[in-house]
Design goal:
It contains 14 helices and five strands. With 328 residues, it is mainly alpha-helical. Strands 1-2-3 form a three-stranded parallel β-sheet. Helix 2 links the parallel strand 1 (13-18) and strand 2 (47-52). Helix 4 crosses helix 13, helix 5 crosses helix 8 (135-149) and helix 10 runs antiparallel to helix 13. The longest helix has 27 residues, at 280-306. The protein starts with a helix and ends with a helix. The structure holds adenosine monophosphate (AMP) and tryptophan.
C-alpha cells in the first residue's frame, strides 16, 4: 500500500482468518470466534477484518463442491457467533489477488530453514504422508504473513497453534522493512487467555481438530446436540474421580475444565469447589449442558441466516471496503 492509501485508513485494524476446511469446531469457537466477538465489543476504536482463508484451504486436497459450501458455512457461522455485521469487514481471501502476490514476495525473502521449523507443517506432513505434500503447504506461512502485512494489521487474534506463524510474520515484515525501507506495520498477536488450545476429547494430548480420531474427539459447531452430549460423556478422563486441574497428569479432566471455564467464565478454583465429591459423570453432564446451551443458540442463529441474504450482503460490502486498500 502507498502512504496516501495508508493515510485513508483512519482506524487501526484487528485482522484474522479461518480456513474453510470443514465445519468449525468447538476449538475454533473458544480459541478464535468467541474471542473476536468479545474483542469487537471491547475495542470500539478498531476495525475488524476477518477473511475466509480459501487459498490456505487448497494447500491440502479439497472437493470443489464441499469447499464452496464450507466457505458459506464459515461466513454464516462468524455471523452466528455474535460478530456484528455493521462493524465487520468480512471477505474471501481469494477475491483479493494481492494476497497471493505479496505472498510470493514474502516467499522470496524467507528461508527454507525457517519454514522447515514450522510445527504445523511438520504435523501435517506426518498426517498426509500417503497423499503427497504440496509445495504450497510448505510455503503457507509466507501467504499468512502476506494476509496480515497487506493491511498493516495491528492485532491478530488467534489460538496458540498460530503463534509460530505470527512470529514468522513479524520476522518477515521486519526483514522487508530493513531491506527496502519502512513499509509494513509489525503486528502483535492477541491470544485468548482461556481456551487458546482445546484438546481432542479422545486424545487430550492432541489439539481438537477436524481430522482426528474419526472425529470422535472433536465437537463440530453444527453437529446434532445428542451427538455432542455423547461425545462429552465418552471423553477420556482418568481413574482418580476428582475434578481438579493438572494438565500433565489429568489432561482429559483439565481439558473439560478449560471448556467449562471458557463457557461459564468460572475460574479453575471455582470449578474445583463446585464439583468437590462429585463423580466424573456429574461433571461431564454439566459440561455437556453448557456446550449444548451455547450450540443451541449458535445453531438457531446459523439456521436463520445461512440461506438468507445477510451472508452475501456482508461479503459484498466487505470486498468493497477491502479492494481499494489492497489495490495501491
Ligand atoms: P483453523 O481451523 O486451523 O483455520 O483455525 C482457525 C482459528 O481457530 C485459529 O485462530 C486457530 O488458532 C483456532 N483454533 C483451531 N483449533 C483450535 C483448538 N483446538 N483450540 C483453540 N483454538 C483453535
Ligand atoms: N493459518 C491460520 C489457521 O490455520 C488461518 C489464517 C490464514 C490466518 N491467514 C491468517 C489467521 C492471517 C490469522 C491471520 O488457523
Amino acid at each position: 500500500m502507498n502512504t496516501e492509501v495508508k493515510q485513508n485508513i483512519k482506524r487501526p485494524i484487528v485482522l484474522s482468518g479461518v480456513k474453510p476446511t470443514g465445519i468449525p469446531t468447538l476449538g475454533n469457537y473458544l480459541g478464535a470466534l468467541k474471542n473476536f466477538a468479545k474483542l469487537q465489543n471491547e475495542m470500539t476504536n478498531y476495525d475488524f477484518y476477518i477473511f475466509v482463508a480459501d487459498l490456505h484451504a487448497i494447500t491440502v486436497p479439497q472437493n470443489p463442491k464441499e469447499l464452496k459450501q464450507n466457505i458459506r458455512n464459515v461466513a454464516a457461522l462468524y455471523l452466528a457467533c455474535g460478530l456484528e455485521p455493521e462493524r465487520l469487514v468480512l471477505f474471501l481471501q481469494s477475491e483479493v489477488h494481492e494476497h497471493a502476490e505479496l505472498g510470493y514476495v514474502m516467499q522470496s525473502i524467507s528461508y527454507m530453514g525457517e519454514l522447515e521449523r514450522m510445527t504445523q507443517f511438520k504435523d501435517k506432513v506426518a498426517k498426509n504422508m500417503t497423499q503427497g505434500v504440496t509445495s504450497a503447504l510448505f510455503t503457507y506461512p509466507t501467504l499468512m504473513a502476506a494476509d496480515i502485512l497487506l493491511y498493516d494489521a495491528k492485532y491478530v487474534p488467534v489460538g496458540d497453534d498460530q503463534m509460530q506463524h505470527l512470529e514468522l510474520t513479524r520476522d518477515l515484515g521486519t526483514r522487508f522493512n530493513n531491506r527496502f525501507g519502512n513499509t509494513f506495520n509489525i503486528p502483535e498477536c492477541l491470544v485468548t487467555k482461556q481456551g487458546s488450545r482445546i484438546m481432542d476429547l479422545q486424545d487430550p494430548t492432541k489439539k481438537m481438530s477436524k481430522s482426528e480420531n474419526e472425529n470422535k474427539g472433536c465437537i463440530f459447531l453444527l453437529e446434532p446436540l445428542n451427538s455432542i452430549k455423547k461425545k462429552i460423556k465418552s471423553a477420556v478422563t482418568d481413574s482418580e474421580a476428582s475434578v481438579h486441574y493438572d494438565k500433565v497428569n489429568k489432561p482429559g479432566i483439565s481439558n473439560l475444565m478449560t471448556i467449562y471455564s471458557s463457557l461459564t467464565n468460572k475460574s479453575f478454583k471455582e470449578i474445583e469447589a463446585e464439583f468437590v465429591g462429585c463423580n466424573y459423570g456429574t461433571f461431564k453432564t454439566k459440561v455437556a449442558d453448557a456446550v449444548v446451551e451455547l450450540l443451541t443458540k449458535i445453531q438457531s442463529k446459523y439456521n436463520e441466516i445461512v440461506n438468507g441474504d445477510l451472508v452475501n450482503k456482508v461479503l459484498d460490502e466487505g470486498i468493497k471496503k477491502v479492494l481499494p486498500l489492497s489495490k495501491n
